[in-house]
Amino acid sequence: MACIFCQIVSGRIPSDIVYQDEEVIAFRDIKPQAPVHLIIIPRKHILSLAHLSEVDSALVGRMVAIANQLAKKEGAAQNGYRLVINCGEQGGQLVPHLHMHLLGGRGLSDTLG
Q1: Separation of alpha carbons 95 and 110, rounded Å
Q2: What is the DSSP letter of 62?
Q3: Does residue 45 lie within any of the structural domains?
Q4: Which domain holds residue 90?
Q5: 9 touches 20 (CB < 8 A)
Q6: Helix, strand counts (H, E) of the chain
Q7: Per the domain annotation, does 111 fall within a domain?
Q8: Cβ atoms within 10 A of the Cβ of 107, count?
Q9: What are the φ and ψ backbone dihedral angles of 46, each rounded to 5 degrees?
Q10: Number of compact structural domains in the chain
Q11: CATH of the domain at 50
């Protein structure tokens, strides 16, 4: 179990969990890039968006729905927020476990790269 996110799911690594259910966990990023910076992950280990099977495709929609709820709860929804899923090394994915960043709480740059 080398995946850091799988270790968070199992409880081996503590994290500031803000949401969890049977399929998804959300927690605060340890190096936030905005006042609101949450990581939303499936409990199931999926390497990246590119490795998402058709059976698991609804999981991404569920992650987005949870992100929307959390944006409201964290006070980021009114002024806007960003959801980011990086895919693969060249796409900026640092942890090989499907995850979504929820960023908000301040103005974000309009550049993507």
Answers
A1: 24
A2: H
A3: yes
A4: 4-104
A5: no
A6: 2, 5
A7: no
A8: 9
A9: -125, 125
A10: 1
A11: 3.30.428.10
Which of the residues are catalytic? Answer: 99
Contacts of residue 63, defined as CB under 8 A and 6 or more positions apart, other chains included, come to 24, 40, 41, 42, 100
Task: For residue range 6-24, list pLDDT tens digits in order.
Answer: 999 999 999 999 999 999 9
Helix (H) or strand (E) holding 60: helix 57-73
112 within a domain of the structure (yes/no): no
What are the pLDDT digits (tens) for 56-92?
999 999 999 999 999 999 999 999 999 999 999 999 9
What's the pLDDT score for residue 113?
Answer: 56
Is 8 among the domain residues? yes
Q: Which amino acid is at 112?
A: L
In whole angstroms, what is the distance from residue 27 CA to residue 38 CA? 5
Tokens matching residue 104: 């908000």
* Burial class of residue 28 in the structure, from the number of CB atoms within 10 Å of its CB (0-12 exposed, 13-18 middle, 19+ buried): middle
pTM of the predicted structure, to 2 decimals? 0.94
Residues in the chain: 113
